[in-house]
Predict the 3D structure of the following.
Amino acid sequence: MVWALPKDKALVALAGHPKMRWPDGLSFGPDGFVYVADSDIPDVMLKPASHVASAAPFHLFRFKALGTAAAGQ
């Protein structure tokens, strides 16, 4: 799940999916979407390549941004 913490401190869920294991590496795209890489770091960190390959596939998610920002940020 990807969350936002606005100034009023009330958490807002921005995106989620059953296949989203460890959202990591968020970036604004030029198309008004936020892109999120799903890496599953806790399961693959310090594991052999064979284990990492068996944990695949890793997904890229996107959701419509609430605001604007320069692409790549």
